Amino acid sequence: MRIDPDVVLWSAPERERAGRPLLVLLHGYGSHEGDLFGLSPRLPLGPVIASVRAPFPENGGNAWFSLQGTPSDPPAAAVEAAADALLEWLDTLEYTSVGLLGFSQGAAVALQALRHAPTRFAAVVALSGFIASGAHPGDAELAQIKPPVFYGRGTVDTIITGAAVTRTEAWIPAHTTDTSRIYEDVAHSISADELTDIAKFVAEHLR
After folding, report:
1. Which residues does 71 contact at the CB level (< 8 Å), separation at least 6?
2. Phi, psi (deg, nearest 5) at residue 85
3. Which of 50, 108, 166, 197 is deepest in the core (most CB within 10 A)?
4. Where along the chain do its domains lie?
5. What's the pLDDT tens digit per position in 198-207?
6. How confident is the model at residue 69 (pLDDT cuts 50, 70, 90)?
7. Range name among 9-18, 68-77, 187-196, 198-207 with the lowest pLDDT average
8. Which pTM value belongs to this model?
9. Which residues pair with 171 in a beta bridge?
10. Is residue 145 exposed (0-12), middle (13-18) or buried (19+ Cβ within 10 Å)?
């Protein structure tokens, strides 16, 4: 499993990326790299934005891991493999600091990458997603350093199960310095109010 560098969408050409922070966008299930990239005009101009494509095709788009059987409680090994692929791709880049912004499956991968490398990320934005079940070796270090995480979800999101939400809402404050927001009458999507909050969070933590 690997990230294809040839399909990554960048907000700036290579000559304009040096000396700037990097914000990586991780789309949700059955989607593509162009999806979250559409948010770029509403995000801070300081960081370079890179929107990546999940590694394998499923359900008419691309996925970080299969949703067959357990949509909000995938095997931990599957989420770990996706996080490993992301980290291996990041190893090929140069940046002053890096943050992750993931939606749904992408949020699960972003949080798993944080567990895998607790000191690597300046900030993580997890939207309409969940933490993978089970303990992880990185959890103890995260509980000590508590990096900044923005967690947002809508009150009428029927995609992420109640059990996954409960698990995530217990894990995030125990392991991160969290900014958690719940948006009234928002389904499995990103509202205008949420995007405003995200931009403020990114501007504060990814300089």
Report:
1. 159, 161
2. -60, -40
3. 108
4. 5-205
5. 999 999 999 8
6. low
7. 68-77
8. 0.96
9. none
10. exposed
Residue pair 113/138 in contact (Cβ under 8 Å)? The answer is: no
- Residue 138 · residue 112 · CB < 8 Å: no
Q: At what angle do helices 105-116 and 76-90 cross, to 10 degrees?
A: 70
**Which amino acid makes up residue 174?**
A
CATH code: domain 5-205 is 3.40.50.1820
Cβ-Cβ contacts under 8 Å for 14 (sequence gap 6 or more):
none
- What confidence tier does 70 reach under pLDDT thresholds 50, 70, 90? low
Strand partners, 127: 103, 152
Residue 2 structure tokens: 């690997």
Rounded to 5 degrees, what angle do the CA atoms 106, 118, 24 make? Answer: 35
Residue among 2, 7, 1 nearest 31 (CA): 7
pLDDT, average across residues 78-82:
93
